[in-house]
Amino acid sequence: MTHTVVLVGLGATGLAMAESLLRRTDVTVVGAADKNPAVVGADLGTLAGLEARAVTVVDDPALLPGADLAIVATTSDLNLVVDTLVPLLERGYNVMSICEELSYPWSSHPEIARRLDETAKAHGVTVLGTGANPGVLMDTLPLLLTTLTQRAERVVIRRRTNMSRYGAILSKFGLGLTPAQFDDAQAVGKVVGHYGFEQAISALGAGLGWPLDAIEVGRVSPAIVSETVRTGEHIVIEPGEIAAVTHAARGTLDGRAVIDLEIMFGFFDGSDPVGAGDDYRIEGSDQVIELSSPAGFESFVSTIAAAVNVATAVVEAPSGFLSMGDLPVARIASKGAHLATARAPRD
């Protein structure tokens, strides 16, 4: 069965999702919305680097046609995105978003979580937050790994992730600023680091049955000041500007850090003492489980994959507010067989 999809938000991530979804055979994209005047009125296929698809971008989600699923890629802040999500649910869309704080907001935003759950159930639809992190890499994946020990006692994750393919979200990390500019921006709340630590820790703790005492999120801090020019897809980092930052958080139980997470976000090159990579350590009562990815899980690619692979599972899931851990593994696994050959734009 082919499901219909609309997209809300066509930044770098939203367009990458559009390009993938337009090439799939298990979904049909029937609408897209974005407030950017530069894309309103354009054909979505053309914007995504494919041939025209007769899908014209509108400036308001209220103008979108009916569909089985709405995918929202606008902001990391759940307080801001909730007013986009609720009207979509009320119109009968199943809704999926890569808003990091939507992944598991039952502790961080309990009133919003209840509102979304009640609205979704009242209209017989599903709402889900997904993405690479949170969504998979610091919650669902380590939760799955704990299956291999009878009693998990501690989870430690260290990620060093390449951010060179991202666009607007880079500002919240302070990448490309001088150290002085970073300090000023952080002081006024413009540099906040990673959204989603609290949600990932909450989801992992809940899945393990750990009644956590507290979740502590540290301040993001500069890790590498570049001595070279580093070119990403959307910005260039000059010498003297910050090329990588570190952000960490932990969940405590009985005063002990049982979930210990740290991420370095950066534009890495060969002159750096570290590079992209991911390391997992599950300390169990009967064995220690370690998983390493020397090159790291590429965050941009992984986010796109998580979103498009989960799309049909959201439509077919029970109504209400669900998390990635609520979905069967077989339903969210790669559906590459549904990815058709890319079609190039016509001359």
From TrEMBL:
Record-linked InterPro entries: DAP_DH_C, NAD(P)-bd_dom_sf
Top-level taxon of the source organism: Bacteria
Pfam families per record: DAP_DH_C
Domain 2,4-diaminopentanoate dehydrogenase C-terminal as annotated: residue spans: 137-332
Listed name of the protein: Dihydrodipicolinate reductase
Organism: Tsukamurella sputi
